[in-house]
Queue: 2 jobs
Job 1
Amino acid sequence: MAKNTLTVTDNRTGKTYEIPIEEGGVVRAAAFRDIKNGADDFGLMTYDPALFNTAVCRSRVTFIDGDRGILRYRGYPIEQLAEESNFLETAYLIVKGELPDQKHFRTWQHNIKIHTMVHENIKRFMEGFRHDAHPMGMLLGTVGAMSTFYPDAKNIFDLESRRLQTRRLIGKMPTVAAFAYRHSRGLPYVYPDNDLSYTGNFLSMLFKMTELQYKPNPVLEHALDVLFILHADHEQNCSANAMRSVGSSSPDPYAATAAAIAALYGPLHGGANEAAINMLMEVGSKDRIPALIKEVKAGEKKLNGFGHRVYKNYDPRAKILKKLAYDVFEVTGRNPLIDIAIELERIALEDEYFIKRKLYPNVDFYSGIIYQAMGFPMTMFPVLFAIPRTAGWLAQWAEMVRDPEQKITRPRQVYIGESERQWMPIEKRAEPTMREDAVSEAI
Ligand code: CMC
């Protein structure tokens, strides 16, 4: 009779072990610790750099089927949310698990809006950044600093405190992001306008000049809302993992969110749309695409905005954005990079190299083109990613905090360094040899 177990024979000892296969085809890595080569043996470890095939949690937030190009938040297909929902409602769904009814939505909206202001000292803190500071660096530093403004946030096992910090962070993120942008432009900071929608207010804090009330263009306001929905969560990626890993030592959520922002900063994650735009600008015209493809195939370059650890099919978010771009262009005028992007996609998707490796455009391939058309400088791109992703990070964090199986993250390593050596006085030591690892090279 079929059994949900895995039978493993250790050929070193001839012993056989039966390991349970849990729901979803999961085996517990800890089960391998029982497989020992002797009484003093540590037992087997699984080796998985970059956590390629290791589930680090059980989560109810986001479902991805990378082979079929499916993305769902709490069971709802991303296409439906992008078409029908708005960002604040989606954030509610992600954080609380259900879509709100009208009454709950009104309360949620109110609860977020009353937290859009920041302490004046946060403003002064931000004024201390250099005039040319990267807005993502400012966001990272300021969210970290917010930890000192809300000492009550350390009560992470208290539901009411978690709720309050969640509203504060979702409410204040656009304000800090907009201040970072205004700072880099040398413009006065604009305070929140709670008569506007979440994205309308964000646009106001970014772009308001001398008018009494900023009136966001409804097409651009809606486009930003869709972009925020698409970026609200993406299960266990690098930044969600940072949120959980740092959060596992129980700091307040501002510290953990700062860590997640730091993870998102890198060009392989939240910085990829900036890299994609740079690449498209470098290509400059369609006739230079074959030369780029040649360089990519020779391993000299990567096609930025292409490929994904999970999607081995078209990223469903990229599909939505490709369409959204044309709505935005109706208002902003066409971003000529779209033609290069579409041609690049066409050529790449017909090429054996990309087909074999299942490399498709990801969300970053088209998002930058839209942001650029809307007038955002490239340094703001990762910031625009971080604002909505805060909802996802907080949902992941709260799930982790409540999960009785979660403990402080503490990975194992395979030690490949020196075995024991004797310390020598400095005058007796031989000249140090150049080592392969980076730290030694830097010396
Ligand atoms: N262009 C050319 N070749 C690529 C690319 C690319 N963008 N991505 C992967 N490959 C090749 C890679 O060289 C490797 O080839 P080979 O088997 O011959 O060595 C193969 O495809 C598998 O790639 P990998 O690096 O093992 O894949 P990964 O899962 O470790 O990396 C990735 C995923 C997203 C970091 C990578 O595809 C990449 O660097 N893409 C460009 C950066 C980018 O667009 N990042 C945004 C990701 S989506 C936003 C998000 O969710 O954070």
Job 2
Amino acid sequence: MILVTGGAGFIGANFVLDWLAQSDEPVVNLDKLTYAGNLENLASLADDARHVFVKGDMGDKALVAGLLATHQPRAVINFAAESHVDRSIHGPEDFIQTNIVGTFGLLEAVKAHWMAMENGAKAAFRLLHVSTDEVYGSLGLGDAAFTETHRYEPNSPYSASKAASDHLVRAYHHTYGLPVLTTNCSNNYGPCHFPEKLIPLMIVNALAGKPLPVYGDGQQIRDWLYVKDHCSAIRRVLDAGKPGEVYNIGGWNEKPNIDIVHTVCALLDELRPKADAGSYSAQIAYVTDRPGHDRRYAIDASKIERDLGWKPAETFDTGIRKTVAWYLANPDWVANVQSGAYRAWTTRQYGGALGSQQEVAA
Ligand code: NAD
Ligand code: TYD
């Protein structure tokens, strides 16, 4: 049994689906179901007893303590977070509460449980904390990619709150011996990505005939990894990572934002041609830049490749094609997210009976 937090979000849901596709080890999924949590992502597990969904806050120590006591997981994987930089600029409070205070609550509950475990299970137990490359700050064009020892220089309220959570996780290892693993991954893309982030926003806006808003000059560089490769890296770190270590995860795939947008448009031109045969790229609109916008992120993935033998399965070309195809094949998912109907999914599915401490198989 493993316990994941934030497993109804983009990466967490992909992780749960992949986990149960490859193993019969059950998953307890603790998610607060914020606007970013969408149980429709997990609809294929509706009748699967291996998945136990619990609606609740990872910072609720009593709730987490109860789940740990009941289910005795061998590992906890922490995906839960507020994750959108633009939202953190407009309203940082939730980011402090969730990413810092929430992680602290989770650590306290996990530490108390771990300390009381019997020796064999205690030695095998792991807490894996999922973090981001954004904690390292921004690179210049000629700078070397981020290694695990790169100085922390977070620039947004989001990345600062994630950096704080990384430091707390580190401290619980050094101070209490808690067997933690931390992963810092580059930008993900793929199925079930909430359309407030660059790639899904461009796909859904293009299809809706809306402008494709590119911040500033569009030359900011991100390092893109297909979400299922992130999930395979997390599984590998959980299996073979050394407690107390940090692993950067990335696929050596840096691209300027404007190139990403043109690639998405070209794929849509091919897979869903416009009636007038024009290109979706005509919808590109340069807009005011994000305040404090980091110029470049790049992950040096040498350590996880060398020490754990992990490599991504997808290239950007194969991953982005799968991603665009997924959005074209799932118009209902897109429509429910855009209309907000996905938030009613829980009510439809569970008759509104989902309380903060109730468990349901989802
Ligand atoms: P997301 O915003 O799509 O999902 C976050 C999930 O956490 C949601 O289901 C939400 O309901 C849940 N949640 C929020 N607060 C909670 C709380 N207090 N208790 C329980 N659940 C809570 O995020 P994502 O893109 O899937 O990212 C997952 C993790 O990976 C985050 O920690 C993020 O920082 C990290 N990460 C993301 C990326 C990326 O490109 N998306 C890259 C690297 C790292
Ligand atoms: P985003 O998906 O928000 O991820 P992050 O900020 O965590 O890297 O944004 C990716 C890049 O795309 C980032 O440089 C900001 C830019 N961007 C746009 O140009 N337009 C948009 O509408 C969005 C959402 C992002």
